[in-house]
Amino acid sequence: MAKKLYHGAAYYPELWNEKVIEEDILLMKEAGINVARMGEFAWHTMEQEEGNIDIRFFVDIVHKLHENGIETVMCTPTPTPPIWFTHNHPERMYVSQNHTVMGHGSRQHACTNHPYFRKKANEITEHIAKAVGSLPGVIGWQIDNEFKCHVSECMCEQCRTLWHQWLEERYETIEQLNEAWGTKIWSQYYYSFDQVPQPGPAPFLHNSSLSTMYRQFSMEKIAEFSDSQAEIIRQYSDAPITHNSNVPFSVDNERLFENLDFASFDTYASQENKASYLMNCDLWRNFKKGRDFWIMETSTSHAASLESYASPHANGYLRAEAIASYALGGEAFCYWLWRQQRAGCEQPHGSVISAWGKPTVGFQSVLDVEEMRKKVEPFMVATKPQQADIAITYSDQAKAFFQTEPHQQMDFRSLVTNFYNHFVSLGVHRDLIPEKESLQDYKLLFTPFLPYISDEYRKRAVDFVKSGGTWIVGPLSGGRTKEHTIHTNAALGELEEIAGIEALYTYPMDGTGSVGHAFGEKAPLVLWSTVFEYDEQTAVGTIAGGNSDGKAFITESKVGKGKIVHIGSLPVEEDGDSLLMKLIDHYATEAGVSVRTDVTNGTIVAPRIDDEGKQSWVIVNMDGEGGSVTIPEKAMDRLTEEMISAGRLEIGPYEYRIISF
Ligand code: GAL
User: Fold this and answer.
1) Are 152 and 97 in contact (CB under 8 A)?
2) How many CB atoms lie under 10 A from the CB of residue 491?
3) Which of 83, 88, 183, 285 registers the highest number of CB atoms within 10 A of its CB?
4) 3-state DSSP call for residue 35?
5) Distance from the CA of 267 to the center of ligand 1, in angstroms?
6) Which domains, from first to last, does the chain contain?
């Protein structure tokens, strides 16, 4: 449980003079900012001359903030190595997939695997940790900034050497690699590890195994970098460490957070895309289960850079976002950024204060958030998010498989977000859980868009089923091996035998006129699909028309005390959404899912419980249209302490209510 709720902003004191800094601190107090995050791009300020490190400026700022009741999250500045590091050193730079070598400027321009980068990064981090690690006011650390948000896998010479070592550790002999990747194809066959290329420029596509393994290698290396930085900080500071990540970056978040203390993410989802915002909350809560997450960056009104801008949030939306995140397990809600930048490439970005020190268009919303924060803090610290009955697996390994094999330009993130949104629309509470997370106390497990289902995952899911759980696999899950190849024993590997089903064909259903019938609904089927033999015992969704008329696309098999359900194809369009929602509703009802409400679309209910297991609901209208929900029994309004009788409760536009049962 959180001990307090933070309301913060990204702060760049290195860009301003003393007078402005003083003004900033006064204004922060006025706006209710109680934590500032700083330092992530300030390597130059800290080490103006190579080898001459001086952190005093930041030590002073930490003190000043602390004296004014503002705490600090200190960052390591490694996304922006200064000119002395980069100039005349192309070998230290990031090399893109088409072999373009980055020059100085922007950020993430260096290769994070280069030994000299690691050396200098370790040095600067050690100096910062020593200088500020035990200062009062330093309550947390952020390593680097959004790893791999602009770049993905580096193709430099250093990475090439490390790649070969990584392959040797993974495959031991080159013959095993050749076998696993099927390298006789197109005469790719290798005689030694150092012959294996990086997936750089090529006339056509690379071998799937080569591409996916390179992504895994890169995700592993960036996590190792994060691990090593965290280890240095821990020598000098007890404050917990995080990294500000997100779903689209080329990292494996589950692996990344393994050795960090708390999870945090940045979000610039527009109001229309609130599903993505909510999904992040439901996911990040589970990267460090039991520990609250942070929203490390979000915009007060609009994101923007020199080349584009988003629409500002409607008045009222920011507060809805903030209360939703606190209720879903957030300990902090922080803005990017405090004071609008007067230079650089992000001048037009929304902020709390303008470059000339006046409130921005988002300022009033920040005050509204603060007013709400103060009201709800006692409740939030006395309760914690309730575990859902339904778990949905989220995997960045799957994301890597989709990057290599997007089928038809399919984007993993949108596939998952759309699927996730059905649960929100149905008012069913849900946990997005990383692959290795325990399945304890869930009733229903969904595994959508996971091309490779590991033996370990499958075993845990099957155990879950045997002891009474329902496991819903697909769409697009299970058809690839660990090495990103096709199974040769059955289309879905071991799973078919376990479920007692037979997959006949896999092929794209787009444009075939195939229509899926299930749960009293019908909808067009598309995407890369798995078609099952029709069997009265198992078929719950059948196909009409197209190439597989009369076959099944959804099967249900009893295994032990539970069930395995396979969804072989994706029903689309409005009818497809209805079909999927019927499916979710059907299995949720059957499994006795009780953490759900009948809240109207656009409004959410975040359930929380106290130490005694007493339940409360935080109800938030997020679409500005207002909504309602049935209160099943007499309850108490936590903020007014008035009793509410059972029945329909109306919620106004962007309004929030907290009710306890
Ligand atoms: C984030 C980044 C910030 C800032 C922000 C603008 O991705 O971490 O430094 O660039 O975007 O929206």
Assistant:
1) yes
2) 20
3) 285
4) strand
5) 9
6) 6-151+225-382 (3.20.20.80), 390-590 (3.40.50.880), 603-660 (2.60.40.1180)
| 3-state SS, residue 113 | coil
pLDDT tens column, 114-150 = 999 999 999 999 999 999 999 999 999 999 999 999 9
What pLDDT, in 10s, does the model give residues 582-610?
Answer: 999 999 999 999 999 999 999 999 999 99
Is 157 an active-site residue? no
324, HSE (Cβ side, Cα atoms, 13 Å): 26
Distinct helix (H) and strand (E) counts, the chain: 17, 31
Q: Which helix or strand (DSSP H or E) is residue 494 part of?
A: helix 494-499
What separation in Å is there between the alpha carbon of 71 and the centre of ligand 1?
21
265: phi then psi, degrees, rounded to nearest 5: -145, 160
272 tagged catalytic: no
Does the Cβ of 303 fall within 6 Å of ligand 1? yes
Question: pLDDT by residue (tens digit) across 477-534?
Answer: 999 999 999 999 999 999 999 999 999 999 999 999 999 999 999 999 999 999 999 9
Q: How far is Cα 159 from Cα 96, in angstroms, rounded to an integer? A: 12
Regarding the beta carbon of 336 and ligand 1, being less than 6 Å apart is answered: yes
Catalytic site residue from 40, 47, 146, 496: 146
Q: What are the DSSP calls for 43-105, one per residue?
A: HHHH-SBTTB---HHHHHHHHHHHHTT-EEEEE--TTS--HHHHTT-GGGB-B-TT-PBP-SS
Handedness of CA 293, 299, 300, 301 (dihedral sign): negative
Q: Is the dihedral of CA 241, 242, 243, 244 positive or negative?
A: negative
Those residues whose C-beta lies under 8 Å from the C-beta of residue 616, and which sit 6 or more positions away, are 379, 383, 607, 608, 609, 610, 638, 658, 659, 660, 661
Q: What is the pLDDT of residue 2?
A: 73
